[in-house]
Amino acid sequence: MIRVNHLQKTVDGNKKKVIRDISVQFSAGEMIGVVGASGSGKSILLRCLALRERWTRGDYTWNGENVIQGGGSGSQKYRFKCAYLEQNPSLYPDKTALKNVLIGQAGQTPLLRRLTGMVRSDDYMGAMDELEKYGLLDKAHVKAGNLSGGERQRVAICRALVHGASFLAVDEPVVGLDPKSAERVLDTLKGLCKEQNKIVIAALPLELAERFCTRIWGIHEGQLKIDISARRLTAEERRLIDMA
């Protein structure tokens, strides 16, 4: 279980609060949809939870172990347990899908491996297994720059899993995708929670959060206004997060 107490994030020399005193907890197997109007703080919340942003204030515990106390940054040990996936995943466009999965992102793998692509045979088999599991085996040797948006998202998911992530924070993963590709990406994320007991927290359009997630967080001006089991939001709940 991950527990967050009084998370606050300020920017512009501590003049502007973008996350305001959020306290929440979540557990393995949950797929949480984060919804709210543009500029409400969804992306910065995901980055804080995935330990990609320094907290101004707050406590963060993971299965009872202190990760952050009173603000600051989490240790590298816990950063490796988290993956932050952006709208347009930061893949190496001139390397194949397989190489992207194997060598990971800057800061996650040794410099020599990133530069040369040298990997062990068991790493290779593990990466191929993940690509096959998510319908990408035929894309393993295709350069990432030639993949579709949905395929790039699934490659990024495979990469996170191969490098040991148990918590995926995913920022608008279906923006720009056709409905079929979007559904496949969200089915992939949902399967991670149901079948592998991962945690997925994703910023999503409301209708998709209602359909695919087990829980919905509604964010308005950096505050957590709604925390419910996934269902259709009422008109009043939509007004609370400026989505009426």
TrEMBL record:
Q: Any coiled-coil ranges, and where? A: none
> Pfam families attached here?
ABC_tran
Has the keyword Cell membrane been applied to this entry? yes
What keywords were assigned to this record? Answer: ATP-binding, Cell membrane, Membrane, Nucleotide-binding, Translocase, Transport
Q: Which PROSITE patterns match?
A: ABC_TRANSPORTER_1, ABC_TRANSPORTER_2
> Which Gene Ontology molecular function entries are recorded, alphabetically?
ATP binding
Q: Which residues form the ABC transporter domain?
A: 2-243
Domain of life where this protein originates: Bacteria
- InterPro entries in the record, alphabetically? AAA+_ATPase, ABC_transporter-like_ATP-bd, ABC_transporter-like_CS, MetN_ABC_transporter-like, P-loop_NTPase
The record's PANTHER family line, in alphabetical order, gives: AMINO ACID IMPORT ATP-BINDING PROTEIN, PHOSPHONATES IMPORT ATP-BINDING PROTEIN PHNC
This chain belongs to the protein called: Phosphonate ABC transporter ATP-binding protein
Supply the source organism for this entry.
Paenibacillus puldeungensis
